[in-house]
Write a structure and sequence with these properties.
Layout lengths: L1 E7 L9 H4 L4 E7 L1 H50 L6 E2 L1 H5 L12 E4 L2 E4 L4 H4 L11 E2 L1 H6 L7 H4 L5 H17 L1 E6 L19
Parallel strand pairs: 3-7, 4-6
Antiparallel strand pairs: 1-2, 4-5, 5-7
Length: about 210
């Protein structure tokens, strides 16, 4: 016969005995036949192996997830750095042309609105090459935004001042750009803002 000792902690004690057994260890000894002892030992080893290898798989999954998160952080920081541009006091119209998204599909994307210059790389799906509003990119888009145009003005139209309604639409666009995109400087040569003193209205390209 083989003597088997089983040690039980209070977590295995029935609830009705918990109060008296919380800090005690309970040991019971009894004898079982050798063949049964072998079965018990094998079962215990199998259970231990299951727990160990199951835990190993979980640890490996956690390790892979940490590696993935670290790599994703590095790639996100690299994308942000590539799309960023150093702010400066003034930008010229010629300088803006380089940042229309065509030279670097993942680089800065600048748009001038009512005297301010904004890096709109977060709106690349709107203003990038081939997108619906790409006509605004890399330029002073003030008049196009104010008039709700997706194509160039005629020379005659460009000579006409913006109406109050158009200035109100411009003010609405300006609120959007200020809220969503990074301000990186002023547009050289622009003294007064066209949207000053008017109530913002929602954009309309209908």
């Amino acid at each position: 016969m083989v003597c088997v000792t089983i040690r039980l902690t209070s977590s295995f004690v029935p609830q009705r005995h918990a109060a008296s057994c919380l800090k005690k260890l309970h040991t019971q000894s009894f004898s079982i036949p050798p063949e049964t002892a072998g079965i018990v030992t094998a079962a215990g080893a199998a259970t231990w192996a299951l727990v160990w290898f199951g835990g190993a798989e979980e640890r490996e999954n956690r390790r892979k997830w940490r590696e993935y998160e670290a790599q994703e952080t590095l790639e996100r920081e690299a994308r942000w750095k590539r799309a960023s541009v150093a702010p400066k006091d003034e930008w010229t119209v010629e300088e803006l042309k380089f940042y229309d998204g065509s030279n670097d599909l993942k680089g800065p994307l600048l748009i001038a609105v009512d005297g301010g210059v904004y890096n709109c790389h977060k709106g690349r799906h709107f203003y990038g090459p081939g997108c619906e509003y790409h006509v605004f990119a890399g330029r002073d888009a003030t008049r196009l935004l104010a008039k709700g145009l997706l194509e160039e003005e005629t020379p005659e139209d460009m000579k006409q001042p913006l109406s109050y309604v158009e200035r109100a639409a411009l003010a609405g666009w300006l609120l959007t750009f200020k809220a969503k995109y990074e301000f990186v400087g002023r547009l050289a040569g622009v003294e007064d803002t066209l949207s000053a003193g008017v109530e913002a209205a929602p954009p309309d390209f209908s």
